Amino acid sequence: MSAMNDRFLKTGIFLAPFHPLHENPLLAIDRDMELLEHLDRLNYTEAWVGEHHSAGFEIINCPEMFIAAAAERTRHIRLGTGVVSLPYHNPFTVAGRMMQLDYMTRGRAMFGVGPGSLVYDATKMGLKAEDQRRKLDESLDAIMELMQGRMVTKKTDWFDLREARLQLKSYSQPMMEMAVASSRSPTGALAAGKHGIGMLSIGGTSDDALAAHASNWGVYEETARANGKTPDRRKWRIVTFAHVAETREQARADVEFGLDDFRRYFTEVATFPIIPPDVTGDPAEYLVSSGLACIGTPDDCVRHFERLWKGSNGGLGGILLLAHNWADWPATKKSYELMARYVHPHFQRNSNELRDWSYHDAKEKYATAGQQMKSAVQAAIDKYQARKG
């Protein structure tokens, strides 16, 4: 993975989703689906869909249901749960649902898990915040066995599995791709490393956050090796923000549409500090200058992705954009299109390298080969004229 031309970054989105309260919820969910169809056409690699039950802003409750519908409307894009909050579910039933999805999507589904980050969900189910990390571990231990066709007998203070075994063998070989969400704490890295599955780094891309993510990847590698697994950076994705347009001015103007709603949610409700409450100036300026987001041109986005690559301290497998609805729908679709056309090729084995070579090779030969061609054409014309004459 060392040579820049060899790297292949998966590209995709992390769809919470975020929708302001004054908007028709049916149309909002429809647009999320249309976004996945759009990304599928633009050859994005994957989309991860969230699970949230409270606060009215992130309105997909069941990612599996959404993914099943999206799989029927798309051809290539891989579809992951981003993430199923394991403490909310019995591990046996959630593993069974995901195995069904593995079949229904012909192996395009991925199983992302986490402890549950929206505190209001946990409160409504009588879950204590301090128990969520432990419950993630207990559930994941059981699920890893179940997903590999094994029998599980395991009793905890919140579930009791007795000779539990799924009805279906995995459709994906050797098993369904899985990943754990990881923010600043090492919890996710420890869980992912233990089982040798993927890691999704959420929690911003400021310099501090990138250092924390890289440090967590170190924890992942150490834990994986201690558990007999081989760490692979291709299983690591980092989540960031981007909105691009033809000019920086246009990009800034675009995000005025929805950035205030987004900022309000993250200062009044969500306990995940994306935009700190004490930021008084322009939130777009704060997001860009802190390295949390790229709001600019495709060239700015290339630089932003390069920074993440460098900050990963050795490379990573994918960059996911947190879908944010900062801009209106046409500008949002345009942003994803511009990135697919002008940003992704730089990070996918430099996919224009041979085109560039071929063009320059032809250009070098233009003076000689071009002249020979012109002479040949002229000779043919002269010959015809002579015969006619």
The neighbouring-strand order within the major sheet is: 1-2-3-4-7-8-9-11
Low-confidence stretches: none
Shape, per Cα inertia axes: globular
Number of strands: 11
From the N-terminal CA to the C-terminal CA, the straight-line distance is: 67 Å
- CATH evolutionary superfamily of the largest domain: Luciferase-like domain
Q: How many distinct folded domains? A: 2
- SSE succession: EHEHEHEHHEEEHEHEHHHEHEHHHH
Can you tell me the CATH topology of the largest domain? TIM Barrel
CATH class category name of the largest domain: Alpha Beta
How large a portion of the residues is in β-strands, by DSSP E? Answer: 15-25%
Mean pLDDT equals 95
Summing up helix and strand content along with how strands pair, one would put the structural category as alpha/beta
What CATH architecture of the largest domain would you give?
A: Alpha-Beta Barrel
Percent helix range: 40-55%
> How many helical elements?
15
Radius of gyration: 25 Å
Q: Characterize the main sheet.
A: 8 strands, parallel, barrel
